[in-house]
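Q: Okay, next protein. This is Zf-UBR-domain-containing protein from Aureobasidium pullulans. I've checked the sequence twice, so it should be correct. Can you predict the 3D structure?
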Amino acid sequence: MSQNTEASQTAQEFIASQLQLEADAREALPYQFDTCTKPLGPLRQAIFACLTCNPPPTSDNKSHTPAAVCYSCSISCHGEHELVELFTKRNFVCDCGTTRIPSSPCTLRLNESTSQKGDVTGETPAETNKYNHNFAGRFCACDDQYDPEKEKGTMFQCLGLGTVEDGGCGEDWWHPECLMGLPRPQPTETTPKEDKEETKQPNIEGQEETAQPSDIQEEVDEAPLPPGFPAEDDFDHLICYKCVNSFPWIKQYASQQGFLGPVHHKQPSESNEVKSEEKPTQDASLSSSETNKKRSAEDGSEESASKKTKVETEGVVAETTTPSTTTPAEDTPLHTKLPSAPTGTFSLFLKEDFRNHFCRCPSCFPNLKPHAQLLEEEEAYEPPVSESDDEEAQNGRGSVGSGSTYERGEALLSNMDRVKAIEGVMVYNHLRDKVKTFLQPFAESGRPVGAEDIKAYFEKLRGDEEGIRLAGAGAGAADESQEGSQ
């Protein structure tokens, strides 16, 4: 085999590989990233902390200016920096181009002083932004750095009733063990056991089958939930113990309709007391789980199941509210029928319909009003999807980061000066015809185009016939030498 055919590919293979790379890029970055969200004001949106521009403090005594940028700025302005994905935060305004990130200007917003896009810096950041240790790349009460390569199991985001200033967590992400005050298992503690049990694993239907490498890796990544922690399918949201303590009025909803039982946080000083409470807590969670599953299978039993729960927890009060025709019972505020709030420090786990079961009487609604997430489901802002159609590309409306390379080229061409665009198209057509003539024999024979072929072709375009002859002779000698050595 000649040297010029090694590590080469046909034109069709090259185009196919480029299209696959572009498809992979669109899957990883599915949205357009040519517009900063700062002009849109506070949004619930995906944000990213830039540790290059705002490095975390090396010690508690060091100061740190927390900041985060929107999806578009994370790519267009900080694409080569070290970023930490914080996922969605509510009521957040992008900090890119503000005094919180003085070292990197925003390249997407309009600079008011120059009336040109880009080089925006020194703007005033939004005063409404709230920050926590997530912006320094740390999460959970354990203040751990999240490493997706080493992290085992699932982390859960708190609904975030309170900010750090309120005593809450500010929509922090939590390990299940940390919510319960339990020590987290280290990877070295679980790996030997998994190695011993990896030969045969039951699948979801209960049949025994040999585990494949991918199955083993998935099981290693998914650490089991600690005893007493609800199953992931049994709840939609959680409110951590920090936020529950900051707004204790919500404690009375534990174990009520739309809420699972309290999951207590084990304090170091009350280990003996909590041990005796762990089993009831687990039973309450399991009971809620079974009720939820039963309700999904037997839709008509929801009313009777809820009444039974009220009878068991409310005693005589529940019996007095049973007749649905009694007007005074209907007018009685819900909070007067709730039992006393459980004691201790605990987190709340919320079902999908939890918003329907809050008391909204004149006395209780002021507690709900500051927390819009408790009143209605939140929608997160998403930039437009980057798959622009052909018409958009031809009209020059395709974004810098949207569409294929061909579409982006056409979009840029349509935005050029008309005379320069025509001249560019003429040069391109002239070069295209010549390259097409050069590639035609390769396409017909299926022979790949090597680096030496391309080098010789462009030497011919320059008129360097002697260079072509020498290149051809050199390639032939190389072939003969390689054949002689075999």
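A: Here is a summary of the prediction. Residues 189-220, 271-327, 389-402 have pLDDT under 50 and may be disordered. Residues 3-26+390-485 form one domain.
Q: Noted. On to the next one.
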